[in-house]
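URGENT: need a sanity check before tomorrow's submission.

F., can you look over the Antibiotic biosynthesis monooxygenase record below? I want to be sure the sequence and structure line up before it goes out.
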Amino acid sequence: MKAYLTNGTIDFLIKLAKKYPAVHFHFMNGPSNDVAYYEGTDQKIFQAGREYDVIVQSGDIAETGYVVMNNIPVIDEGRPLFEDNFKKRQKEVDSQPGFQAFRLLKPISSNTYIVFTQWDSAESYERWKNSEGFQKAHAETKPPAYFADRPFVTTYSMIERD
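Structure tokens as predicted:
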């Protein structure tokens, strides 16, 4: 399955939804930008968007909630190890209170993966982040050798459509 992301003003993004009514868009608002996200097969709608392969997924993306995207640049040689590490430990987050959805998004034309998690609230995410399970899953003291650059996190609130 493919996933697609683009940034823009919410007014512009909603126009896309009206132009493509058969596509189920998810709209998100962050501190510095708005985002449209959709999943599907091959229908590329965004002219300046980003395309990903969804290689691990669980849960259904809800219309309400809090989204955390860990953006992780990975060198080409490190991709198989990085993906395997997530496939092994991904289920740890599924049983957490407030968890809604997970996607590991593999970039098509860049080196930055996105670890997409959705929670029912920012508080649920913070509880997970402060949990023993999170500490165990992120126990490495230094970044792995396969990181191409420092990872960064972006957060969003889902925007409900009328």
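My own read: The radius of gyration is 16 Å. DSSP finds five helices and eight strands in the chain. If you see anything odd, call me.
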